[in-house]
Amino acid sequence: MSLTDPVESERRTAAALRGSPAALTAALLFGAGGLLAAAVLGLGVGGVFDQLRVVTLNSVFGNWDAGVPIAVRAAAIPVGVLACFLLFGQYSKWNHRYTGRTTFFAFVGPLTLVLLGLALGTWVATTMWAAPDAIGVAVDPTFHDDEPWGLGAWIMYAAQWWLPGLLALLGIASLLGRIASGRYRARNSELAAEMLRSGSLVDAEVVRSPACPTDASRVAATITLRFEDAEGRSRWVKCHLLLPPNEVPGIGAHRPLVFDPRAPGDTTRIFVSPAGRSDASDFLPARAA
């Protein structure tokens, strides 16, 4: 039997880690490790592409030896996958401990790091790729029945550029998307903070909430809430969530909702706190039901 409330102990630990140098250091270290793990995985993927490329470009009687050793390919993929799961799991945990939130990441999310790591690893692999027997033709050294390359062969030949380039572009797009979402979230937090100062804060009742799987880390859900404006009229709004299953409120639960009493129908000035906390960053924008 414990004489300490475990819930209160977890709350104090989370509060102590929020914004702490220890949580920041752990997040950065695990993020860097995850980036390298994704690069190892990219090296293995690039090695597989190397083998497919050689088979496609050269004749069946030509050279099929890949430049990336088979031992490297065989080890890099499982090691990279396992390391990515472990390191990015820890990165997510410590990143959330640093921010104190489970709804967003500080800096960049795992997807961006995975894509950039894959781009780095595949680029390293392309520097090891075997050169074709000839460019533009599959040379047959046995029967001398050479065949010109088709479109597929030219695409595989150009993979040395487009494979790491495509992954790099996806990583950059993910980074830009995260920057844009961060600015959007910051604007919403500023508006929610303004509404908390000058608007009306009420308890809204959840009237519709989906059943959420309990084995998922986070689920996307839409809940419908009912609240009463300053004149006592009932209004309904929706809120889109991306939260751990245990934080999605069920039917009948009450959550803080803030709105502009001068324009209660303006959904751009209505915010809901799905987790029930009162900080401005906890409030999410509502939509018309």
From TrEMBL:
Q: Which organism is it from?
A: Leucobacter muris
**Domain of life of the organism in this record?**
Bacteria
Q: Which residues cross the membrane?
A: 21-46, 66-91, 103-131, 151-177
Question: Mind telling me what this protein is named?
Answer: Uncharacterized protein
Sorted keywords for this record are: Membrane, Transmembrane, Transmembrane helix
